[in-house]
């Protein structure tokens, strides 16, 4: 029999958040083990419920949600996104510039597929949310990683970015607030990146899906609000800020220097048409969420559950010898560093695998986020405080044993 093989297009595509370690964890669960999951930013499964009004309106609207919609989405939720962009000071966005998708994920893949020819380069952060690297590769492009500097609050290293721009570079991806580091970039850093894009005529893809998940009274500035002479594609959605990962509701906004991008926009429109439309109940949810009570504030503000868990997780992690971690200012994650002398890890996937097997705690290895060395890992701080204490106790015990090997 002829072997059925995956396409060559997948040769460089990697998405380790749902990779072999998760597979092992599933297997262990099937065998009856209880695993503490610090691996995925899936809020609802940790008791962070979506706002009631979203659920209610989706149920009420289900009867109206059985048909296809316009490929870009229903008018009312797109109008709600348009108002949202206005509230974030993004100028000149019309309803035509807004695309609704099955989560931001679908739109990220679509945006790359519409843009890239074989060999085109896209600057992607290291560490990154790995869908970006994977989407560039799948589209025939070549992801080039610029370093985010742990010594500088994980801000992008602008000089590294500058050095890596070539005549093949088409775009820069900026994930702000950042997954996996929890960094929130100051306006000066955003302006420096925009200046590079301006000089080299690059598109900026701004992934701002955590723009309301902010701690310590921090404020988020949308990159697209800072210039109108660069093309911005801004990604956002309900998954995180509205605890609705499962509703698969996201959006993409084209803004800034659109005049020279007519052909690209035609490509986006074609790909949006080919998948007909985003799931319609999710589209209804967008309208209610953006117009409704912004209950995320109660989770991230003083006394909020997410804030308390961030503080607890950071304290427990950094009490472990040889573990350091920049405290996240936003999002749901921490990306701690393991001192390579104390913990000489050669293969961090194997490290995650052993932690799982020995202590039943599931993390994601740093190289899964295209980090350059096997000396980091990512955790979420979503389990309740008791589970977090339990999990970090186990990680501490495992690391103690690792040091003594
Ligand atoms: N962008 C970032 C930075 C993310 O962390 C995620 C999900 O974790 C996504 C995009 C995808 O979100 P969605 O659920 O809207 O597809």
From TrEMBL:
Signal peptide start and end residues:
none
Task: Name its co-factor(s).
Answer: pyridoxal 5'-phosphate
**Membrane-spanning segments:** none
Protein family according to the UniProt entry? Belongs to the class-I pyridoxal-phosphate-dependent aminotransferase family.
| EC code | 2.6.1.2
Tell me the GO molecular function terms: transaminase activity
The protein in question is named alanine transaminase
* Chain ranges of the Aminotransferase class I/classII large domain: 34-385
| Top-level division of the source organism's lineage | Bacteria
- Whether Isomerase counts among this entry's keywords is no
